[in-house]
Amino acid sequence: MAGRTTDGRATAREELVFVALGGLGEIGMNAYLYGLGAPDRRQWLMVDLGITFPGPNEPGVDVVLPDLKFIEDEASSLAGIVLTHAHEDHIGAVIDLWPRLKAPIYATPFTAGMLRSKLAEGPRIKPQINEVKLGGRFKVGSFDVELVTMAHSIPEPSALAIRTPHGTVFHTGDWKLDQTPLIGDPTDEAKIQALGAEGVAALVCDSTNAFRDGRSPSEVDVASSLAKIIERAKRRVAITTFASNVARLRAVADAAKATNRRLVVAGRAMHRIIQVAMDTGYLPETFSYLDQREFSRLEPRDVLVLCTGSQGEPRAALARVAEDEHPDVQLGQGDLVIFSSRTIPGNEKAVARVQNNLALLGCDVVTDGDALVHVTGHPRREELKLMYGWLKPRVAIPMHGEARHLREHARIARAAGVPEVHALTDGQMVRLAPAPSMVIDEAPVGRQFRDGRLIVADGDGPVRQRRKLSAVGVVAVALVLTRKGEIAGDPVVAIDGVPEETDDGYAMEDLVLDAVDGTLRSTPSARRRDPNVLREAVRRSVRAAVEQVWGKKPIAKVLITVLDGRG
Amino acid sequence: MAGRTTDGRATAREELVFVALGGLGEIGMNAYLYGLGAPDRRQWLMVDLGITFPGPNEPGVDVVLPDLKFIEDEASSLAGIVLTHAHEDHIGAVIDLWPRLKAPIYATPFTAGMLRSKLAEGPRIKPQINEVKLGGRFKVGSFDVELVTMAHSIPEPSALAIRTPHGTVFHTGDWKLDQTPLIGDPTDEAKIQALGAEGVAALVCDSTNAFRDGRSPSEVDVASSLAKIIERAKRRVAITTFASNVARLRAVADAAKATNRRLVVAGRAMHRIIQVAMDTGYLPETFSYLDQREFSRLEPRDVLVLCTGSQGEPRAALARVAEDEHPDVQLGQGDLVIFSSRTIPGNEKAVARVQNNLALLGCDVVTDGDALVHVTGHPRREELKLMYGWLKPRVAIPMHGEARHLREHARIARAAGVPEVHALTDGQMVRLAPAPSMVIDEAPVGRQFRDGRLIVADGDGPVRQRRKLSAVGVVAVALVLTRKGEIAGDPVVAIDGVPEETDDGYAMEDLVLDAVDGTLRSTPSARRRDPNVLREAVRRSVRAAVEQVWGKKPIAKVLITVLDGRG
Lengths: 567, 567
What we know:
The structure is a homodimer.
Chain A: E1 15-22, E2 24-25, E3 31-37, E4 43-47, E5 63-66, H1 69-72, E6 78-82, H2 88-91, H3 94-101, E7 105-107, H4 109-119, E8 129-131, E9 137-140, E10 143-149, E11 158-164, E12 167-171, H5 189-198, E13 202-206, H6 219-232, E14 237-240, H7 246-258, E15 262-266, H8 268-279, E16 290-291, E17 303-307, H9 317-322, E18 336-339, H10 348-361, E19 364-366, H11 381-391, E20 395-399, E21 401-402, H12 403-415, E22 420-421, E23 428-433, E24 438-442, E25 447-451, E26 454-457, H13 462-472, E27 474-481, E28 492-496, H14 508-522, H15 525-528, H16 531-550, E29 555-562
Parallel strand pairs in A: 2-21, 4-6, 6-7, 7-8, 12-13, 13-20, 14-17, 14-18, 15-16, 15-17, 18-19, 20-22, 27-29
Antiparallel strand pairs in A: 1-3, 1-23, 3-4, 5-25, 9-10, 10-11, 11-12, 23-24, 25-26, 27-28
Helix pairs in contact in A: 4-8, 6-7, 14-16
């Protein structure tokens, strides 16, 4: 389908195209493609391959993955996958989907380290990971890729300057401007400005904070605010943050030292990141902390405990501390808990639950609503304006955001004087060059799910069935027939997720059996001989009978055994 | 259990007690009780009887109701139920639970009208509703109740001054201070101050905004801000708000008139409230608007459409408009949508979905984050301080809030000089008088669910089963045995919510059948003769076999038919 333009032109034309398989219209699940060449023989470069988390309509799902059908069909022309940074929404799908692509991966040392650390925990896949240095320049097929160091909430965020015969694309990844990011290099504004002078055809840019005015504070401001809050605390202090925010971990460790507290770390994810950060030089090799088992022997005034669980995850350290069920860490009256994080939309209730449990223990809670204890890793409006001013692209493609963010970002880009601005949705393929840019095709896109150990499709699959089960429950009916259609043995019923009694105390199972008996009696034996006809008749009558008393029709499964050798 | 104090005193003692069956520790589901008399023969007064909405762990549930076991056991000593205002979290459980209490209800005309309007739609129950006038004083059993007009986001919010031989309790309900509430009377500050002069033993008070500094703006400020925004709009304007906010409906209608737009109303809930508000004089009898069917014939510049759906409810008018699936109302490029509301925690994703769909249609969206288009109906910190200053109670009981709100409110009450402050949880019974106040008992509390047409228990009931089904799906297996334990006919399997194939393409049903066959072969026929033993063996092997390939154990139902007459 990529071999033909929507206007049906069959003549091959050399061009540079862009399409998102995820990341336009929903936060997370980033997966972008650049294509180079004539429509019928393009070479592809993938940027990022992330997951997102399931919503309430996707029960039982572990993670949501982009549907890569489009690129799987031409995996042989995929030159490589470049990862901009190590957040799950940018690399999380590699573990499940790389085997379908098998293209070489390019990543900086920290990102590669995080990926390897994840791969070590999962099924055994061995992607080729090419470690590239910060700010490095390398070829991926015909794409000439140069990394540009940005700032974000994880080490080594790298924008990509992708040079092609049709011009340069600047793909920002997640970014902000920060000259004092606490760890790693500051945003390489000089290189961005030089790229602008060289000329940029298209800017594909983070939209997350398109609604927020001004500039984001620096990581260093958060560190000093945290230190002051911890300084004032009289008893135990617990702090939770995104584990991958190594600068924040460093700020917390520094604050512990400055306030003469011992740093205790609770939660597996924290340990893993600290290890990768030490391996890659973002935390000193002398970085030291106490295991959570040491917590109980420390005086309240002497402890600063860093916990996983800033999103209210029920099995993470902080949730268990808040429920007073953590094996090692206990908090109580007058202790302080700092949420050095923001609540990701959808997690509000889970986070509130943890905070309420902490309140019941007598803890004081400080969040980013109360003090500067967290800072965004994404550009606010003034930062976006600076970027447009530096790069002066001909084309702007807002990415990383829901539809309303992309729309607002498009408005900012137009106001900054960009002549060609496209607020796209996933799957819309746009020709970036030659000018003028325009939507030329539509790639198939969608979601799939990691469901236990299997990858399952969206649509009419098990996830949708479970959503239905969660609303109406299930009734199973077993019937035994002879070949002649005679009933052998009594019908058997099992229910699950359906109330056991009607409101006048009649057992639901009996009600179902009555419905089955009624249907069997009213179905002529000639028709009973066809199990499909009988199955459907019983299914309907059971659902109708339950609906009568419950107001809802359960899923009904009718299992018919036809006995052999008696017909 | 109410007949004995925790310290075991058996001597009857006249006292005034308070206990919440809902409303302390979670937003919504308000249900409070005051008890008067000796522990073994108390007379009770109930204040409010509300619902809350189910969370993601309560799939398929329509509404969450308080468990009233405690008061159902002594319903004969329940003198009455006073409703403070007509919001669902204060009156929504009457329709389901009143039949278990059968006590007379007391409410002001608008609240009574809303209740009757709801009752007319549901099952036929006919509670005795005593209409009391605003600011009225009446006896409910031994309780001398006086209404005090407050301000809130619905007409006729009434606090209760409950006079008893042990002193007066001031129970605020939901409230704020507003001298220009746009409809109805302003907050009756003079009466509150007079009650303070008379002396108040206990203040039981709204905690919703305990974390918010300052005072809340007036409804009149919102009206003028809305009018200005609508004035500037060049094309269609749609506005959504809580239907029950009659003052807001009035403000919208006034803005329509002032900007020469025709008011169109879309959504059933809006029509119902407008009718009750007209019946009770809160909207003029001449209040006029166009039905949604008129929308299409109006010029874009001439229309202001008021829609239900501010919380992203998928079936409400605005969600359908945003999906471009509304039969009458269509919006497009350059139209403006105002969310004159706040997003209730838990609804963030649903609201964002609607806003994203509107962005895709090309609409501009204004929310309470962008402009003064909504105002809270609850007291901020300065309002709480004024209330404590006016009433100077001996005892403060923070209510209406999650644990962290109650804790923060308790801090404010202590700072205001209240000597006895209790941040309670549902079920903790506190003696308010005689002094000193203290927790003396624990009432059983909990949740129950309206599930379709039935009321079902929390705990090990159908809702919990459905939660499990939503995670792991179900496998049903039918087996037929002779009395001797011989297998008759082939086993039959049905699956739902479980992936259909393993990752090497093997059908899950075949995998289950293999497991069943293996179990049947390995179970000696003597043991097969006991269906319970066989059922359990098959159940285990099926779950284990599926787990092996899927990583999750489904619910397994094994239905065994034992054939008659062949043993």
